[in-house]
TrEMBL record:
Catalytic activity line of the entry: Hydrolysis of DNA containing ring-opened 7-methylguanine residues, releasing 2,6-diamino-4-hydroxy-5-(N-methyl)formamidopyrimidine
InterPro entries on file: FPG_cat, FPG_N, H2TH_FPG, Ribosomal_uS13-like_H2TH, Znf_DNA_glyclase/AP_lyase, Znf_FPG/IleRS
Protein name stated in the entry: DNA-formamidopyrimidine glycosylase family protein
Family according to the record: Belongs to the FPG family.
Amino acid sequence: MPESPEVQSLVEFLGRRAAGRRIADVDILEFRTVKTRQSPPSTLSGREITAARRFGKHVALDVGEDAALVVSLGRHGWMRWRDATDDTPAADASATDAPPALAELRLDGGETVEMTDAGTWVSLGLFVVDDPIAVPAIAKLGPDPADPAFSRADLVAALGGRRKQVKAILQEQESLAGIGNAYSDEILHAARISPVAHAAALDDDAVDRLHRATVETVRGAIDARRGIPIDELKAAKVAAMRVHGRGGEPCPVCGDTVRDFSFASTTAQYCPTCQTGGVVL
């Protein structure tokens, strides 16, 4: 699942490469991706991309002064860049391991921005709107820990003293924007908090640790991903994980074995010594 550090790097890449370019043509290969049928992406042909912005896990390409193409990456979506000299056809899932392109923006210099989806069901969504805030999922986003203004009070408001697992709240986009399953595991490990701990059970010291770990994990990952080619971001993310996806491996902090834990519809990786007082969930 794309999360804010990788999406931020993607947006910065698109800002450098696509801003100032005109959209020569739009090709929609999977019509289920189009969420604004009255304003399809084809209406953007001939217009100039002026900027790229991130909203949580969403990419917004500003087109002129009064329109934006919002790409909701969903669970398995991503974007690819093809140079004008690359005459390889759009990825065909039946012939390659690369995810298929479900939509393409062809730019005036011959380059192509491909929007892909690697899932068995279509999670990619495309919206053409006057302002990204018109996309319901963006309108409901909570504060973003990457924002310099993000405060401990923002985190406390997100937690709300609820009898709900902190891991679920970290991934709840209406509470905190941009964090998914991987970085929630990393944050909880850094904060030394159990993945099944409820927000209501956290004392002031735990909230302090959680705020610090959230900010440092998200902003540190953004800095670490900056400048990495967008087709290498997923691999860089996986390589940087300390506990997520590391079940059976030693914890890099204490040497205990990282454990897997499944609950509801998700999984978590955690260190018993660092996070649960030695208790195996």
